[in-house]
């Protein structure tokens, strides 16, 4: 039956430190969140490139705000108690450099402990020590306590408690590593490791401080005081117990506190040169630790404890009978994310390791004393051998182990020597390479300097050439510019002259066209005026005739009405005489007369109706004719208006074109003038420079002349001196001859000098003359040019003024045309208004006449009817007596009736005549209108 697995998982605690000052300053994001209550740690990072969201669970989690005391009380204190119960316990601190391993294990200095309370940053070790002492003291136990403090650096074990004289400093190469040995019982021991027996906590704090100071530390990129070694601080406690049989037993417990080196990789830590090996060795221990953990987790047969000293030393703590706790430390910042994830993985895996903790067996005090005696004996022998120089006594089995280790060391040294030779060769090769590189670099720098000098020279020459080139280009450009300016001005002058000629011709033709059009317009206007005048006279005549006719008819009517009145008066007087007679007779005739009077009334009403209809027809006819005439007039007026508007628009257009043309002309002229001016200025400048050159030439000539004269004078003088000297030398003997000869020579020279002077003077004079001629010529040319320019300018001004005056005249003419056409329009409008007025007045007068006529007829008729009624009344009264005088009355009535008829009938006829006359007059007016229209049509088709 298989044994039940009594294994206990390795306890894994995670501690996350707060952001340090640098990280806060850089404002690095926090990617770790600790859930202490759930014992979970989450890693969250969401960027465009990476998305991480992982959660790890551990036995305990301490976040960035957790305190040292908190961690100790919750996680470490129970382990310390286990140690006091006789267990072996190990606490590892594992994590990236700078994440707080040393802070957690050791923390700050203990200093003075007041009322049993440590400063807040004191770590696990001092607190554990304090707890052990407190418990033991509290139990009043008989105990002994030993501490060891070793460092594992580059796979070498160093004793941090070794006496100071053997050390020259933390990085002293002379520091001797101490050997790790098999104890023959499957365990290991470190030979010569100092074990300090301690009685007080303070002593341990001091030992801890001293040992920590000796640790191998070196600057690295990640942590200025980065621990690059693993340290193991061990406390072994022996507590005396009494067995039931009174035998004294010793209870033993051991606490290993392991501060591992930084877990980060070599490259990232920035380790260089010599430290590469160091990192490799550190990693060797850590890698082996990882492999051991993996093997234990995966339960693989072979666990590679022997591959590193760290794992050999801590074999019991990993999968052995030790109680183990791993404190994984991490940083919260994004900067350490990768390493944090590695640490979390590592720690998470380590959680699966199972140990089988066992309480150490109690050892009898006598056995312990025996062992101690053996140890004392061994040590004494060692000291003795050392003194005698006869070697050291070693038991046989120990000797064999040591021999094997010695051989391994020799082998290792050989290998290292071989490595050293190889490295030396490599170094030599590298040195050579470095030397050649250096010479090459020196050569190259020399060449570079020379090339730079050459380059600078070339640059200077290039700059000079460039300067010269720029100057030459500038001169060429100036000359080219001058030539092109002259050519262009010549060309533009000729071109502008031809353009001007063409434009003038064009303007002249356009002006003649305009004038002819204006003449035609004038003619048309005159014809229109005559036509309108004719029409007016014709209309006036017709209207006169109409007025006369109406006036004649009115007088006729008046006469007829007067005669009618006379007749009525006559018949009335006659009737008054016969009324008395007739009154009686009329009564009898009443009934007969009633019917006849009624019929008379009917006839008169009919007459009235016919009158009314005839008059209304007449009025409507007249008004229709007049309105037709007015409409016709209005139409014509509108047409004429349109024509006039067209003319006005044409005239405006012409005016604008003319103004534009004049402006163009002016601009062209001014350009020409400017060009001519610039040309004349250039010419002036040219002549001025010519003049200055000429004067300087003259000065040079004068100077030359002076110098020549001076030289000739000097020559003559020299010659004279020479001659005098010769003369003196030849003495008086040849005085005469010499005098003659001298005189002759003198004369000759004088004449030659004179002729030379003369010729020079004449040539200079000629030159001066030439120069003055040239100057005169240039002056004359200049003055000619000036006058020419002035004439051009005056011509231009004259042409411009002529143009302006022509334009003004044309504008005036146009304005006159326009005002005349406006006058024509207003006259036409007046004519139309007068015709309309006339028509209104005619219609009104005709209407009033007809209405008067109608009224008088109605009055006559009413009078007649009233008379008839009175007569009827009288006849009614003279009913009986009227019968006799009926015949007379009938006769009288017949006569009156006849008279009335004789008045009414001619008046009707007159009225008819008046109507027909009116009709004829209107026909004539229509004819006149038609005639006007026809004539106008003819005119408009003509234009
Ligand atoms: N929990 C924490 N609270 C406050 N400060 C901390 C904490 N953890 C670490 N620190 C600080 O961080 C710095 C680095 O810590 P420490 O030296 O202990 O890191 P380390 O992991 O031991 O590094 P190395 O592996 O290089 O030795 C120290 O200044 C320390 O005071």
UniProtKB/TrEMBL annotation:
Coiled coil segments of this chain: 362-389, 483-521
Binding-site list for ATP: 95-102
Stretches assigned to the Kinesin motor domain: 9-353
Pfam families reported for this sequence: Kinesin
Single GO cellular component term: spindle microtubule
Gene3D superfamilies: Kinesin motor domain
UniProt function note: Responsible for microtubule translocation. May be important for the organization of phragmoplast-specific arrays of microtubules. Plays an essential role in stabilizing the mitotic spindle. Required during mitotic cytokinesis.
Family as reported in the entry's similarity comment: Belongs to the TRAFAC class myosin-kinesin ATPase superfamily. Kinesin family. KIN-5/BimC subfamily.
Protein name: Kinesin-like protein
Organism the protein comes from: Salix udensis
């Amino acid at each position: 039956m298989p044994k039940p697995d009594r294994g206990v998982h390795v306890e894994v605690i995670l501690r996350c430190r707060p952001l340090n000052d640098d990280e806060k300053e850089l404002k690095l994001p926090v990617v770790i969140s600790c859930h202490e209550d759930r014992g979970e740690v989450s890693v969250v990072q969401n960027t465009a490139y990476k998305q991480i969201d992982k959660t790890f669970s551990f036995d305990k989690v301490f976040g960035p705000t957790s305190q040292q005391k908190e961690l100790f009380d919750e996680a470490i204190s129970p382990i310390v108690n286990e140690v006091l119960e006789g267990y072996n316990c190990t606490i590892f601190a594992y994590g990236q450099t700078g994440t707080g391993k040393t802070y957690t294990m050791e923390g700050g200095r203990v200093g003075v402990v007041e009322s049993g309370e440590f400063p807040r940053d004191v770590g696990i070790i001092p607190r554990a020590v304090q707890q052990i002492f407190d418990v033991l003291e509290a139990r009043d136990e008989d105990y002994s306590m030993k501490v060891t403090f070793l460092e594992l650096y580059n796979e070498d074990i160093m004793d941090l408690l070794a006496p100071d004289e053997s050390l020259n400093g933390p990085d002293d190469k002379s520091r001797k590593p101490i050997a790790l040995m098999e104890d023959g019982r499957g365990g290991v021991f470190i030979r010569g490791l100092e074990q300090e027996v301690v009685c007080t906590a303070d002593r341990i704090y001091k030992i801890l401080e001293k040992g920590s100071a000796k640790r191998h530390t070196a600057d690295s990129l990640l942590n200025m005081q980065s621990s690059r070694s693993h340290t193991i601080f061990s406390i072994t406690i022996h507590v005396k117990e009494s067995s039931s049989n009174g035998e004294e037993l010793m209870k033993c417990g051991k606490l290993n506190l392991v501060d591992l080196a930084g877990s980060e990789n070599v490259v990232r830590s920035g380790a260089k040169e010599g430290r590469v090996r160091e990192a490799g060795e550190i990693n060797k221990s850590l890698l082996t630790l990882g492999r051991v953990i993996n093997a234990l987790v995966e339960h693989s047969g072979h666990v590679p404890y022997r591959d590193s000293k760290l794992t050999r030393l801590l074999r019991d703590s990993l999968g052995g009978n030790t109680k183990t706790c791993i404190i994984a430390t991490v940083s919260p910042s994004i900067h350490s994310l990768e390493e944090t994830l590695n640490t979390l993985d590592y720690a998470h895996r380590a959680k699966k390791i199972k140990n089988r903790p066992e309480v150490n067996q109690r050892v009898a005090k006598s056995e312990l004393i025996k062992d101690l005696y053996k140890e004392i004996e061994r040590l004494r022998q060692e000291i003795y051998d050392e003194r005698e120089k006869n070697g050291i006594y070693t038991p046989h089995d120990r000797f064999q182990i040591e021999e094997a280790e010695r051989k391994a060391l020799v082998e290792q040294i050989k290998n290292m020597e071989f490595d050293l030779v190889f490295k030396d060769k490599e170094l030599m090769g590298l040195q050579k390479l470095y030397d050649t590189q250096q010479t090459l670099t020196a050569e190259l720098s020399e060449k570079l300097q020379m090339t730079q000098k050459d380059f600078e020279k070339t640059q200077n020459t290039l700059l000079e050439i460039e300067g010269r080139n720029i100057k030459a280009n500038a001169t060429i450009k100036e000359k080219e510019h001058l030539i092109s300016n002259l050519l262009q001005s010549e060309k533009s002058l000729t071109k502008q002259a031809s353009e001007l000629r063409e434009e003038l011709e064009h303007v002249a033709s356009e002006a003649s066209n305009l004038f002819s059009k204006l003449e035609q317009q004038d003619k048309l206007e005159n014809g229109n005026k005559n036509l309108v005048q004719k029409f007016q006279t014709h209309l006036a005549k017709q209207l006169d005739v109409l007025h006369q006719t109406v006036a004649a008819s009115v007088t006729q009517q008046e006469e007829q009405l007067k005669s009618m009145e006379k007749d009525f008066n006559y018949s009335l007087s006659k009737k008054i005489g016969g009324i008395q007679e007739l009154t009686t007779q009329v009564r009898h005739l009443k009934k007969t007369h009633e019917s006849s009077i009624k019929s008379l009334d009917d006839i008169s009403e009919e007459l009235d109706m016919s009158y009314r209809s005839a008059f209304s027809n007449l009025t409507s006819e007249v008004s229709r004719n007049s309105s037709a005439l007015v409409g016709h007039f209005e139409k014509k007026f509108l047409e004429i208006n349109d024509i006039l508007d067209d003319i006005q628009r044409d005239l405006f257009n012409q005016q604008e074109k003319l103004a534009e043309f004049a402006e163009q002309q002016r601009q062209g002229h001014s350009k020409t003038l400017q060009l001519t001016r610039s040309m004349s200025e250039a010419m002036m400048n040219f002549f001025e420079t010519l003049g200055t050159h000429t004067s300087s030439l003259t000065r040079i000539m004068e100077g030359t002349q002076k110098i020549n004269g001076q030289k000739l004078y000097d020559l003559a003088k020299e010659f004279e001196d020479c001659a005098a000297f010769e003369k003196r030398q030849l003495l008086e003997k040849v005085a005469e001859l010499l005098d003659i000869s001298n005189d002759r020579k003198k004369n000759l020279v004088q004449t030659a000098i004179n002729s030379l002077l003369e010729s020079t003077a004449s040539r200079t004079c000629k030159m001066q003359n030439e120069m003055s001629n040239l100057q005169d010529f240039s002056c004359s040319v200049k003055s000619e040019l000036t006058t020419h320019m002035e004439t051009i300018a005056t011509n231009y001004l004259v042409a411009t003024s002529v143009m302006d005056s022509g334009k003004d005249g044309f504008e005036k003419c146009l304005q006159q045309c326009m005002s005349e056409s406006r006058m024509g329009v207003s006259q036409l409008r007046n004519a139309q208004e007068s015709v309309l007025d006339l028509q209104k007045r005619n219609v009104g007068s005709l209407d009033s006449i007809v209405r008067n006529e109608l009224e008088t007829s109605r009055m006559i008729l009413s009078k007649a009817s009233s008379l008839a009624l009175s007569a009827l009344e009288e006849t009614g009264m003279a009913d009986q007596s009227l019968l006799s005088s009926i015949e007379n009355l009938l006769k009288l009535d017949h006569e009156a009736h006849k008279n009335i008829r004789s008045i009414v009938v001619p008046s009707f006829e007159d009225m008819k005549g008046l109507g027909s006359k009116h009709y004829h007059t209107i026909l004539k007016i229509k004819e006149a209108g038609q005639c006007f229209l026809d004539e106008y049509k003819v005119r408009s088709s003509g234009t």
